[in-house]
From TrEMBL:
InterPro entries: DUF6965 (IPR054238). It comes from the Bacteria. This is DUF6965 domain-containing protein. It comes from Pedobacter jeongneungensis. Residues 5-70 form the DUF6965 domain.
Amino acid sequence: MTIPEIQQLEDFFAQAGKQQVPIYLNEATVITDYEHFLESHLTPLKANPEAKVNIPIIHRLKILKLLIESNA
């Protein structure tokens, strides 16, 4: 993921505003603290956007984005 793509995700979440929790991404992943979730996922992406270890983080952020878009 590139820095501009990360910035686009960050901008999207900033414009979407705070979401009501809990948010179920799937059967095993529940977001109970929205701000903490975003911070804990965006920080490592910005620190090392090319790391393969970030692939699950990118996946979870994209799922969250799709859920927010579908509920808008």
